Amino acid sequence: MYNKFKETKLDKVTFARISKREIGLNQSVIVEKLRRRLIALQLMVMLKLEEWKKSRIFQALSDERGDVPGWVLVVLMTTGLVTAIWTIAAPRLSAILRNSLDAMNGIR
């Protein structure tokens, strides 16, 4: 079906407005010309879609494997950062928590 479209060179059909000469034709002829233009446009879109599906970009975007080593690296680095910050800030955080709890006990 697509090869016939290419062989008849319908892809070079222009989709401009109907000319003034064509306005004088009866309505059924105009409708038929519009129908043919729409069919040609539909075939062109189908061809472009098939070309897009064969492209490397489409195949790369439709790949669902993901990047597992990248996610493992992100998780390990986050864990390392949290551990390092917690080690440095633990005494200060404990003091802040203890002071706030002591202040709350003094309110009673």
> What profile does the largest beta sheet have?
none
As residue ranges, the low-confidence spans are: 4-16
Structural class: mainly alpha
* Rg, Å, rounded: 34 Å
Question: Helical segment tally?
Answer: 5
Percentage of residues in DSSP E strands: under 5%
User: Which term fits the overall shape?
Assistant: elongated
Number of domains: 2
Average predicted confidence as pLDDT: 77
- Reading the helices and strands in chain order gives HHHHH
Distance between the termini: 86 Å
How many strand segments?
0
Q: What level of helicity do the residues show?
A: over 70%
Descriptive overview:
This protein is an all-alpha fold and 108 residues long. The protein folds into two domains: 1-64; 67-108. 78% of the residues lie in helices and 0% in strands. The protein has five helices and no strands. The protein has helices at 2-7, 20-23, 27-54, 56-61, 68-107. The radius of gyration is 34 Å and the shape is elongated. The relative contact order is 0.06. Residues 4-16 have low confidence and may be disordered.
